Amino acid sequence: MKPIGLMFKHAQVNPFTGRTNGDLMIVHECTNCGKISPNRIAGDDNVYMILSILDESLSVSDTVGIRLLQRGISMLTQADKNDVKTALFGLR
User: Fold this and answer.
1) Residue 64 to residues 6, 11, 16: CA-CA distances in angstroms?
2) So where are the chain's domains?
3) E-assigned strand segments in the chain
4) Distance CA 4, CA 12 (A)
């Protein structure tokens, strides 16, 4: 499995701040069969590696992007970076 991006599970937008809240998940793709699997981040995951996954998620191929949409997975983009930092570090 290799990480290909991030997503929020049960994402909700706070109407007052405009920020997205939810469980931060790492989206993985199996290197053998191509299966896509979102998994929760763990407390001992390296937060800087998680941020680098967000940076790399922009290079996902179109075919993987279509498969993600078919599964209802909406990956985060650079526009969501502040929400990811808030989820990881508690920054506002």
Assistant:
1) 14, 21, 34
2) 2-82
3) 2-13, 20-29, 36-40
4) 22
For the stretch 40-67, pLDDT in tens is: 988 899 999 999 998 887 777 888 888 8
pTM, rounded to two decimals: 0.79
Number of CB atoms found within 10 A of residue 28's CB: 17
Tell me the C-alpha to C-alpha distance, in Å, between residue 72 and each of 7, 67, 86: 11, 9, 24
For residue 6 the two structure tokens come to 């991030």
Q: Provide the CA 17 distance to its chain's centre, in angstroms.
A: 20
Instruction: Provide the 10 A C-beta neighbour count for residue 26.
Output: 22
Q: DSSP letters of 61-87? A: -HHHHHHHHHTT-----GGGHHHHHHH
- For residues 14 and 4, the model is more confident at 4
